[in-house]
Every structure is written in C-alpha cells, then in structure tokens.
C-alpha cells in the first residue's frame, strides 16, 4: 500500500483504486469515512508525530515574532483546550489582570 493511502480509512489494493462498483470509490465517501474513523478512534501515535513535525516545519517557514506565528498560535490553542498552558503564552492564563472585582 502506498504511503499516501496509509492515513485513509479504506485500504486500497491493486492499482491504488477500488473497483468502480465499490461503495468506497467516491472521494467524498472516502473523506467522510476517514474523518469518522479519526473521530471514533482518534489519531494514531505515528499520525500525531507526523502532524507535529509538519507544524514545526510550517513554524520555521513563517515570519514574525515566534509567539504570533500562525502555527505557534494554533499549537497554543490546542494545549489550552487540553487543559494546560504554554509557557510564555498569554493563552489560558488566569492572572489577576483578567479578573473583575465587585
């Protein structure tokens, strides 16, 4: 199986294409089943490593201050949504400046 097909929900055999009568031959069905598979089972560890590596590569290609680069902001948002915080980031911080007193 080619590397490009390892991350899809429906394995391909033969010449990389299912038969024309297959219910998985339409690309929209394949994308939907792949998204559903990730929703139910989550990412594999190898997929997560690939995702983080791609994000790092994008980070070094982007310009501007480190904390304001789009990939750094996206990573910080993921960490905050997981219940943690990134050191040096203002996301997820609950200091006194964000509190309102009556």
Automatic annotation (TrEMBL):
Q: Which UniProt keywords apply?
A: Hydrolase, Protease, Thiol protease, Ubl conjugation pathway
Q: Which GO terms describe its biological process?
A: protein deubiquitination involved in ubiquitin-dependent protein catabolic process
Q: What class of enzyme is it?
A: hydrolase
Specify the DUF3645 domain's residue ranges: 3-34
Q: Entry's InterPro entries? A: DUF3645 (IPR022105), OTU_Deubiquitinase (IPR051346)
Molecular-function GO terms, alphabetical: cysteine-type deubiquitinase activity; K63-linked polyubiquitin modification-dependent protein binding
Q: What is this protein called in UniProt?
A: ubiquitinyl hydrolase 1
Q: What is the organism field in this record?
A: Sphaeroforma arctica JP610
């Amino acid at each position: 199986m080619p590397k490009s097909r390892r991350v899809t929900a429906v394995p391909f055999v033969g010449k990389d294409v299912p038969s024309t009568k297959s219910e998985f031959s339409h690309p929209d069905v394949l994308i939907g089943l792949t998204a559903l598979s990730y929703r139910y089972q989550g990412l594999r560890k190898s997929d997560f490593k690939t995702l983080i590596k791609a994000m790092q590569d994008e980070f070094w290609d982007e310009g501007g201050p480190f904390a304001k680069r789009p990939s750094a902001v996206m990573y910080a948002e993921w960490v905050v949504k997981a219940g943690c915080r990134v050191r040096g980031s203002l996301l997820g911080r609950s200091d006194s400046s964000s509190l309102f007193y009556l």
